[in-house]
Write a structure and sequence with these properties.
330 residues, 12 helices, 17% strand, Rossmann fold, alpha/beta, 3 domains, single chain
Amino acid sequence: MQKSTLKKLSQTLGLSISTISRALKDHPDISQGTKNKVKELAAAMEYEPNSYAVQLRTKQSNVLGVLIPFIDNFFYDSFIAAVEEDARKQGFSVLIMQSRDELDIETANLSILRKNMVMGLFAAISIATEDMAPFKKMEDLEIPVVFFDRVPQEPGFCSVCLADEDAARIAAEAIIAKKKKNVLALFGHPHLSISRIREEAFVKTFKQQAPKTTITVHHPESPEPSQKVALEALQSAMPPDVIFCMGDLILIGVMKAIHELNLNIPGDVAVIGISNGFIPKMFNPAVTYVETSGYKLGKLAFKQMQARLSAQKVSEIVCVESMLVKGDSL
């Protein structure tokens, strides 16, 4: 997309470039009517001040953006730590924004990131994101975007991922090895590709390797709903003998439910999760988990960003391998 210029605005409205410039800056010598006309056309033509364009072309801002759903999340915290560590070594600063999983906030943040002349953007999309046009606009403005964790399904974007399919398969195989028969499997929001990929791989593994296993699937996302689902299941006529937690927030809710009922782990119910690694070690016994490291993902994402900023060809999708970390909960 070729960005609009003051000259184009001037030609369209039949006004001098200086008048256009002063109108955009709310100069008192320019009438309010003229200001309104100029600003309306500037918005329609997606005009951005030339000073931003110059700095973007010359890559002098040395600012990298990070857009995440929530800052108060250990996985994203460790991702940011890895990116910031490498960015600082290379002379970059990092600007962090959170969408809080709301589309309007995500869109507004993208505008702020553009206006702050970020050289590149690391992004984990919100639950509500379907239209990738705002992110394509970043690419059109020669601002490379590297997606991570929550990545678009639409092809043509650079993404760094955890090995989500492998992580779910490894967890399922660990459960099968313990000969569990009644599995409560808790996943994140079904709209997210990461949830769908993990759920499909998890269920598929049981169908192929232990087809007689009973699997009950829910999508509680956060601690409170996870605790509620776990409490209901554990107090039912056929309680699960193992609970699988797709992420740390789900694990926290499940462990609250188990402690509330004073159940023994793994005697009364076993637990396994997919985790960054910090939360499972906080419990006694330590929870068995499949590692999906935010720190490793951040390191990989920064390498991809460096390559893109240097105009090097990169793979559309690269992944961090997963591994089973044994605790005493399974």
